Amino acid sequence: MVMDLAVELIHATVQLEQPLGDGTRTVGTGFLISAPTADGKPRTVLITANHVLEKMPAANARIGYRIANADGSWRYSPQPLKIRDGKGAGLWTHHPTRDVAALEIEAPPEFARAAIPVNYLAADETFADYRVTAGDEMMALGFPRGLSANQAGFPILRSGKVASYPIAPADIFPTFLLDFAVFPGNSGGPVFVSRAVQTGGLTQVADAAQAPSGFIAGLLTQQVELNSERLEIGIVTHAKYVRETIGLLQNPLAPSTVVVAAAPVAGAQAASAEEQARR
Hints:
The protein is mainly beta and 279 residues long. Helix content is 13%, strand content 36%. The chain contains five helices and 16 strands.
């Protein structure tokens, strides 16, 4: 059965936060990927923007799990997440040139099952197969300013149009623009295409019964500003770099396939911990 990627990603997306002791908290978004080890052992990996974790100084953050009750309701149940060792060094793996972080976690069984298979992360050929171009719609999940969709702690679903051209290959264009309002707390959230909501020029090239339900295009890492004014444009880092970061979990000494780091986008600001969401 083909999954509805929008619904599945909602279940796999979590809020990340760390109280700062002064009535504020640093907030970001993460999502879970199922990425078995080389020997086939199941493994759940938390993906987020590297700056989300870098901006959390304490050893433990909180990850926003949700518990389904027998009556059909849900309960928000954030749990401790160890992100630094006793000396303050980060326990996560980050991409050498991109704002991407990965951390292997022990998730509750229902969340481990909700993790999205790693093959849903887009590759360059995915964009070509779907004929993705400027003006196509993508969706994004996150917790803007630490807000959730409801008391159960589910993420807020937004959408926007691809606002740059061209957007592939990732080696040449490692990020692309998405036309939607970005707020602190959105950083690290997945940006994706779901078959159920595809519009515009996105084209399925396979038989409908065989076609994937969509793909994860990347993760939101920044917002665009000009003279301190938000332009309501998000910067998305390609999923290729999520794949590479997961690969570094297995082999930290593996050389990166990225040869030259691209110049930063003018006016870009981190879309999470640059500000602190009020409780």
